[in-house]
Recover the amino acids of this structure.
């Protein structure tokens, strides 16, 4: 399964908002040194109730728009 995700780093709290055809994810970590990507994987694993190793950022590691692959 592939998800379109729009990330907003440096938000006041962590949460996931479901939009029409994508997820909007708000993260408290800044987008430097991969901190926001790491927090994104942690938050998605909690939200989807799957292991972290099953989540992979397919494209957009340095962008706000990401394609994330979920391998079940």
């Amino acid at each position: 399964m592939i998800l379109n995700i729009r990330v907003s780093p440096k938000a006041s709290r962590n949460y996931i908002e479901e939009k029409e055809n994508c997820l909007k994810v708000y993260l408290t970590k800044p987008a430097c040194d991969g901190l926001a990507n790491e927090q994104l994987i942690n938050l998605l694993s909690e939200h989807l109730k799957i292991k972290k190793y099953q989540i992979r950022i397919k494209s957009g590691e340095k962008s706000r728009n990401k394609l994330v692959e979920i391998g079940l």
In short: The first helix runs from residue 35 to 48. Helices lie at 35-48.
